[in-house]
Amino acid sequence: MQRYFLETPITNQPGQTFELTGTAVHHWLTVMRAQPGDQAEFVTTAQQVVIGTLKTTTDKTATVEVVSVTTPKVELPTPVIIACGVSKGDKTEQIVQRGTELGAAGFVFFDCQYAVAKWAPNKRDRKLARLTKIAQSAAEQSHRTMIPTVTYQPDLATLVAEVPHTAGVVAWEESAKQGESSQLVQTLRQLPVGDQLLAIFGPEGGLTPAEIDTLTAAGVKPAGLGPRIMRAETAPLYLLSAVSFWRELV
Amino acid sequence: MQRYFLETPITNQPGQTFELTGTAVHHWLTVMRAQPGDQAEFVTTAQQVVIGTLKTTTDKTATVEVVSVTTPKVELPTPVIIACGVSKGDKTEQIVQRGTELGAAGFVFFDCQYAVAKWAPNKRDRKLARLTKIAQSAAEQSHRTMIPTVTYQPDLATLVAEVPHTAGVVAWEESAKQGESSQLVQTLRQLPVGDQLLAIFGPEGGLTPAEIDTLTAAGVKPAGLGPRIMRAETAPLYLLSAVSFWRELV
């Protein structure tokens, strides 16, 4: 069944109706050619899932009747913010798309010394808007009940100051080389369920020792993610999978 | 440092020399323009890593002196074979590339009822050769000491009969919907370290109930991978990350 995120709160008692607003109207009516009687899933701003039936429609409006309301548990018990160095090409898009499937609560892209791309200030908003759209689409497909946020930070010091988190880790190749293999586990064990984890990943060229120092001074722990070298866009997927496995399966 | 997989055994005592053979010669000499005195890493057929110095060269031959020999532990303690339904486009390539970074021991692509693509028999060898090349390149970049195998099986019954494994799991959406969340953990707990895990993933269209029956009759366990719906090419990455986290970090 097609799934849409609602942009405004609705009354969600079965039998009541609401007016569908925003981009969902166009997609459901024009792209999917919905007819009265057709059903879709609507995720409310309160992270509930409403199954609704199209009652009446003009070309541009849709009145939907609430059939049922559920509150599925599909979000990671540990909200994870994935912070990555700005990358070239479609790498940022891949991180957002796959990371959303794997449950990320949000993404932050940051500038740093070895960033292989720059986001010009005048293009930044457009890039963030495009990535947010990718997050929304991936959230719909993976049956999430929230759309991950996508933001930008100019440097790591600002990032750790601005992004709320109870614990932070930075994936660091040198940690892995030194055989460090327990920091991520230790962090997850100590982090109260529901508290936010900030996970930081360098760009292809890596982070500088000075940048690592900035992070450790702010309480972020360097953590190895196993003995193999992963590309910049693969490491965040490893971390999200590990958090899901640990919090949702073990 | 550039890394090459050797195709034949060498004597690997420091100070001894060997003739480099195969595609590595061309790449090192012509693409990388190596000169006498330059060094590279060579992974032996015994999964050791040799640092070697180019001693003498003609355009097409390279004599290399062994400088040092190490036996790094970079392979997953639980070898995992990732079996996926044949997919369209670059999805198979993405599975092989990222799965290799994440430590897969091998990949099997299989035909099934809802496969969204077919591998014509006359093109199969070419596809497997291309995917093997992608696996080799990813293995070099991620500092693996083996190149994952890439094979094809015509159906699931043949696959479970032909691919050696001590335990098998199949990612099944219905398992996740029913709230099953412990089968993967249980399988990993019971699997002796070093024994091979076969992990099976349907194509985009999923597996049929009859195909699931075939697998369960062969002892393969349906396993949920958390409450979110993942695309066909994302689920194998989740599983490999989970196995690494469990066996290498926890």
From TrEMBL, chains A, B:
Reactions listed under catalytic activity: uridine(1498) in 16S rRNA + S-adenosyl-L-methionine = N(3)-methyluridine(1498) in 16S rRNA + S-adenosyl-L-homocysteine + H(+)
Molecular function via GO: methyltransferase activity
Domain Ribosomal RNA small subunit methyltransferase E methyltransferase per the UniProt entry, residue ranges: 75-243
Entry's localization field: Cytoplasm
Gene3D superfamilies with a match to the protein in the record: 3.40.1280.10
SUPFAM superfamilies registered for this protein in UniProt: alpha/beta knot (SSF75217), PUA domain-like (SSF88697)
Pfam families documented for this protein: Methyltrans_RNA
Leading EC class: transferase
EC number: 2.1.1.193
GO biological process: methylation
Assigned protein family: Belongs to the RNA methyltransferase RsmE family.
NCBIfam families, per the entry: PRK11713.1-4, RsmE family RNA methyltransferase
Functional summary from the UniProt entry: Specifically methylates the N3 position of the uracil ring of uridine 1498 (m3U1498) in 16S rRNA. Acts on the fully assembled 30S ribosomal subunit.
Name of this chain's protein: Ribosomal RNA small subunit methyltransferase E
Species assigned in the record: Lactiplantibacillus daowaiensis
Source species taxonomy: Bacteria, Bacillati, Bacillota, Bacilli, Lactobacillales
